[in-house]
Write a structure and sequence with these properties.
Length: 212
């Protein structure tokens, strides 16, 4: 059971990253909210280094792969992100803001690590930033007034990628705090999936009835 849930989570999140890169390049935008992207990149970079510093492990290799994928998403943000901001946001201001937000992402991860230690920090920070991400995706949909730079594949894979470790850590390992955060993530993820599906349902309802 543990291995199956771990594999589901790993595969689902890999799908999220690959699809985010594809959609970002296709739509000339970034497909992950920048605050969530900063935290994700910092989490995967930090724990890839920590894992591999004590020896090669499957999770360490996966974290490296995810961190490299995150770099590609970071590129789409740096390449296209300024175009979505008001004109008064100059290149130097955009660069300063980007350094600040990505630097904050690393600072947050290191503070979790210093306070909670390796075992708890990986879990607490991951689920808290996942909850933030779930809300920010809805905010992204609202800010862009539609699904530009987003996709149902990202939404569903993100939900499954978080649901699997929720079951693993929250249920199998009996961690109520993580279970509660995971349930909240699912609530927001399902709401986001509903937003992306809404135009499809609207098109179906607007189709003319078949003639007899």
């Amino acid at each position: 059971m543990d291995l199956m849930l771990t594999l589901v989570s790993g595969i689902a999140w890999t799908v999220v990253y690959v699809e985010a890169i594809r959609v970002g390049l296709r739509d000339r935008t970034y497909a992950m909210p920048v605050a969530a992207l900063a935290l994700n990149f910092a989490w995967e970079s930090t724990y890839a280094v920590r894992e591999l510093s004590v020896g090669v492990s499957a999770q360490g290799v996966v974290n490296v792969v995810w961190a490299v994928a995150d770099l590609a998403i970071v590129y789409t943000y740096l390449r296209f992100g300024r175009a979505e901001l008001p004109e008064f946001v100059t290149r130097p201001l955009f660069a300063t803001w980007s350094v600040l937000i990505f630097g904050t992402g690393f600072a947050v991860q290191w503070l979790f690590l210093a306070h909670f230690g390796m075992h708890d920090a990986t879990r607490y920070s991951a689920f808290l930033q996942n909850l933030l991400m779930s809300g920010l995706f809805i905010g992204l949909y609202t800010a862009r007034q539609g699904p530009h730079g987003q996709s149902l594949t990202i939404a569903v894979a993100k939900w499954l990628g978080t649901l699997a470790p929720t079951l693993l850590f929250g249920v199998v390992e009996d961690a109520p705090f993580i279970l509660g955060l995971g349930i909240l993530c699912s609530v927001f993820d399902l709401a986001y999936i509903g937003l992306l599906l809404r135009p499809r349902f609207a098109r179906v309802r607007s189709l003319p009835a078949p003639s007899r």
